[in-house]
Amino acid sequence: MVTVSKMKFAVGVFLSLLLQLACSERSGEPIQLIRPNADHTSFEVVEENLEKLSEIREPVSIIAAIGPYHSGKSFLLNAFIDESKAFKVGASTSPETKGVWLLKTNLVGADNSRVLLLDTEGFFGSDIAEAYDAKLFAIVTLMSSHLMYNSIKIVDQQSVDYLELLARRTQLFQLRNMAAARSNISVELHDILANSNFPPLTWVVKDFAMNVKGTPNDWLFEYIRGRRDKETSGNELDKVFDRGIDCQTMFLPAVDHDRLEDLSKSNLADLTPEYRRDLMKLKDSILNKLNAKMTTRGKINGATMASLLRFLVLSANENRIPQLPSLWISWINQQSESAIQDALSGYRREMGQIMTSTFPPSENEFPRLHKKAVENSLKLYKDLLFGNEKLYSPNLEKIESQLEENFKNIRDANLYHIREVVNSHKNDVLKKVLPELDEINQPMSDDEINNKFNDLRKYMNENFEFNLKPYHNSQAYQNAYQQIQDEIDGRKNALIIRNKKMVDEILNEAYRRYISSYENDMKHVGDSMSSPY
Length: 533
Known about the structure:
Layout: H1 4-23, E1 31-36, E2 43-45, H2 47-54, E3 60-66, H3 73-80, E4 100-108, E5 114-120, H4 130-143, E6 146-152, H5 157-180, H6 187-195, E7 201-206, H7 216-225, H8 237-240, E8 245-249, H9 257-261, H10 273-287, E9 294-295, E10 298-299, H11 302-317, H12 327-355, H13 366-384, H14 389-392, H15 396-438, H16 446-467, H17 475-530
Parallel strand pairs: 3-5, 3-6, 6-7, 7-8
Antiparallel strand pairs: 1-2, 1-4, 4-5, 9-10
Helix pairs in contact: 2-11, 4-5, 4-11, 12-13, 12-15, 13-15, 15-16, 15-17, 16-17
């Protein structure tokens, strides 16, 4: 039998609930819009909840919370509407939120649009691929009017760079969707994809209790712009989120262990004054500038947002988001490229030391030295990749091809060096021997000429052949040797001609003198015979 006291208690509870509902800034319960598929690689639309979103006919603006799992996204959104149990807050180490959840609120933006809150699955979940995070980020970003990125205690370069990477992939996702679905989507959706800039971004640093040099924005932009000033490939997050980036820090919501362990048990009044102050500042900074997305037909309502979400999920599942290797694969690719360059440098260095010697390797010796240098180069390449065949084998053909190209260039340079050495020795031999030819006393007999030139040829050939023995089979040597023979033969022929001319002149002079003497003698004989005495 129901007692009066029990009835009074029930009425009190009922009235209390009505009072809470009247004072609450939420309108209804959170609903899951999309959930991960069985293997957590793509998304499924929750149709009955998408219908509920479609029923919102007034303009809507979405505030979404993104970031690593267990970074306090759900709790922050709850605090945003003075609630503690709207979105489910996890008290264990496992991620609580899966997919994307939506909550309609009684809050309004600067343009009087209805504020919807999106709670999202955290990044870096166990056994979750980066591609899944990228799909989630792209869908939520293109839906949102304002994006909050949550981190705990610090801003770090890795997070800033990762967020820029996700944003760049979302840009390409947006462009691909426009190109692939230009004729298959409504005018409103095309307007959103074509004209929608990235939403403003607020980086929320939770559980912050340190001193910041300057402002929180100065702190964040040290990581965004600071490295860009020093590197040609620095971060450009501010160029992607060109509608503005803000950084706000938030003090610890509680200071005792039990309350921190499960914040879902705390009401807003239980939180630290510093946290409530920071929350109010964050809330005002976002709501005072919050506006619904626009199309040529006006502000987006729930029905258009539902159509956009369905299209984005379909596009993401069709892998229109550019693929990104994992951090491990990125590091391995970077290490592989570095190993290739180190190996090629080792090859060039080893071959370069050989070629800088006074006598370059012969054409017969060069392939052996090349083979040894290649073996050392490939060993270095494999060692730099830990001797793991799975790591080094994909680029073996690439490095072998580059080594072959290096071989051709160094071989050509070596042949040029051989020609230089051979020609230098040829010139030295000729410079030493040719002056001796100019000092030969003429005239002389043909036998003397032949003997003289045979001695010189033997001397030249012996010196030339001895110093250049490794290059006897080279074309450069053959050419130089032939040039020496041609030079000797030319000099010999010229000397023979000069010698013959000198002999002819001597003989002619002797003949002339003989004739002259004979004529004089005959004249005397004639004179004596004609004399009367």
